[in-house]
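User: I'm preparing a small set of examples for a lab meeting where we compare how different chains pack in three dimensions. I only have the primary sequence for this one, and I'd like the structure in token form so I can line it up with the others. Please keep the answer compact; I'll paste it straight into my notes.
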Amino acid sequence: MTSSGDPTELLLSRAADGDEAAMARLLDMHRARLKRMVSLRMDRRIRARTDPSDVVQDALLAAHDKLPAYVREQPVPFYPWLRQTTWEQLIQHTRRHLGAAARTVLREEELEPGLSDASAALLSRRLADSLSGPESRVHKGEQRAHIKAALARLSAEHREVLVLRFLEELSLAEVAAVLHLSEPAVRGRQFRAIQRLQSLLADLDEH
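Assistant: Understood. Below is the structure token output for the 207-residue chain.
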């Protein structure tokens, strides 16, 4: 449960009473966070055709239409709900810009937003900082390269929990809502993902 002083909780209460200004503020206060998520996930092939801000704007318009139903039920925490609406818009943008041209060479599931090379590199840097202490710049660079290679070998579910926690910087509660898991299950999956990552790193260090 969110504390009564949480601005999102306060705005949700006002929005439930039909306060349009509260609805607008509620959506806009998460715009920057949503834009970061889209930027991390957007396929580089469509960046010349659309912008993360366009995806977020479409998502906020869609969320505004669905917000009255959400505030009545509040089935999940607000940000994971808003993130899911944005994720759906990102899929639509990806399919719109890549689907027709790529249909003969790409399977449908490959049109889902993934993780760009730049985002994978950023995740590698954050994991390197988290998994080790102060070291030389050269060694850090080597470690980041190894982590990036190891990430590619992780299972999709292990990689995703690390992306959500270390790259999108979601809380345990938010990740639990996104993945439809309990918080202890998320904590366990994250622990196993890091264990597996360290095992892969050990293998890479031996070669």
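A couple of notes for your slides: The domain at 7-111 is CATH 1.10.1740.10 (Rna Polymerase Sigma Factor; Chain: A). The first helix runs from residue 7 to 16.

User: Perfect, thanks.
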